[in-house]
Amino acid sequence: MRNSHADPPPLKPDVFWILTALAKDSNHGYAILRQVEALSSGQLVLRPGPLYRRLAKLLQDGWIAEHNEDHQEPSVSEARRRVYRITKRGRKVAAAEVARMSQAVISAEAVGLRSGP
Amino acid sequence: MNSLREVKFARRIYQRAIRVYPAAFRSEFGTGLLDTFWCGAEHEFNRRGSWALAIYLVRCLLDIVPDAVAAHLSGGEALAQGAKVRSEKGAWLRGLGQDAWYAARGLRRDRTSAGVAVVTLALGVGVTTSLFAVLYAVLLRPLAYEDSDRLVVLQDRSLESGAPLRTTGGAFLDWSEGTRSMADMALIGGATLTLTDPGEDPERVQGSRISTGYFRLLGIHPALGRAFNPEEMRGSPLVLILSDALWRGRYGADPSIIGLDLHLHRACLHRKPTNVEATPMRGARSLLSCDDLRPGQARIEQETREDNARKSLCNIHSCSRPG
Fold first, then answer.
1. Partners of residue B32 in chain A, C-beta under 8 Å
2. ipTM above 0.95, yes or no
3. How far, in Å, CA of A44 to CA of A60, rounded?
């Protein structure tokens, strides 16, 4: 049950990991794929199609935005790449999801459920 | 077949396969899809060879089918458009911020250029404001009368040269009776008069002779007293309406002036001093085309007698019918 009316709904795993992958640095599509795979310890492997459909939705919701990296002087091959960054709203949503998961871990451990043997 | 060719081949297949996505989605994200596929395919091929590349391609193709269906169902056009709008909006704001920051740094570094820019800007704003003020006063500001957009000035013109002619009072009477396109019509003509009140210095003023319906046509009313009535068109006593400026300047804004006799000498018609009623008329300066007024001068409006109207030279103001 949600704590209050203002709480965002739980995030789908791919949304959470994409936001997490962009939390530290802005990145282009392929780098986001690699980052998601690394951060989720290989549990989530995204491919181009699902990634870009999700990116389109996140752009539409305003959780991520395109980032113009003028200061980095990209190479010719990189110049056409679109780089995405997390927005304040996206960061807030991801933080709320982290808080929700932390609370879930605390509650589960309180009733004797623990990770590992 | 070297690695680049195999990856290119896989990319060509993938490029054809993504045509199943909505067109707007493809237009917005097609390049990113292909670029990301290329990087992934190259990575797989370099790591584990052709079989890994083939498996990667098959997995990507299998992803496309449900993904494209979902994109169509969720409104691919709207999805891509929404993303595009947000993206463009963000880029515009970031560009504006960068421009502002760059300009501020430049102005701070070069004080002379900053001063010149500020002075130029101030001059530009000043000139533009002055120009607009003049344009507004001359062209844009509506006249201070009711239904001013329906007011017209009728005037005779020479058939030969097209030059404007002074319109006669007779024409006014003919047009008043003969026209159906005008809701109302009134006449105004200039007059120079001299006020010769006993014990006061004579004062020469510019006045006008107008027909009874003039104030009705313009929708204005005396601040004190009354306007002319139809009976006064035909006979004595001669009645005056004073302009607000004359009332304040010569008579000290005295409200008891209504009904008093004023001594008037009409210089242009060589009349003897005449006793008249007076009514202060607020805003009469603007009423009677104050273009030719000079500071310190004032006006008197005097009714035109009907019998004189046929002989007088005058302008005719009229009001068109609605619609």
1. 28-29, 48, 52, 55, 81-82
2. no
3. 23
Chain A residues with beta carbon closer than 8 angstroms to that of B20: none
Q: Report A:76-115 residues touching B (Cβ under 8 A).
A: 80-82
Largest CA distance in chain A: 56
Confidence of residue B293 (pLDDT cuts 50, 70, 90): very low
Q: At what angle do helices A48-61 and A13-24 cross, to 10 degrees?
A: 80
CB atoms A50 and B63 under 8 Å: yes
Query: In degrees, to the nearest 5, what angle opens at C-alpha B190 toward C-alphas B184 and B195?
Result: 125
Confidence of residue A117 (pLDDT cuts 50, 70, 90): low
* Beta-carbon contacts below 8 Å between A and B: 83
Which token pair is A60? 């539409």
The per-residue pLDDT for range B188-233, each reduced to its tens digit, is 777 777 888 778 888 888 877 777 778 888 888 887 877 777 776 6
Asked if the A13-70+78-110 domain carries CATH number 1.10.10.10, the reply is: yes
The b-or-e profile of B69-82 (16+ CB within 10 A means b, else e) is eebeeeebeebbbb
Rounded to an integer, what distance in angstroms lies between the CA atom of residue B234 and that of residue B303?
10
Instruction: Closest CB to B86: pick one of A30, A49, A60.
Output: A60
Domain range summary for chain B, segments of one domain joined by + = 3-79, 111-141, 148-320
The stretch B57-65 carries a mean pLDDT of: 87
Which residue in the block uniquely carries the two structure tokens 């701070």?
A: B108
Q: How far is the C-alpha of A105 from the C-alpha of A94, rounded, in Å?
A: 17
SS3 B301: strand
Most confident of B97-101, B124-128, B284-288: B124-128
**pLDDT level of residue B321 (50, 70, 90 thresholds):** low
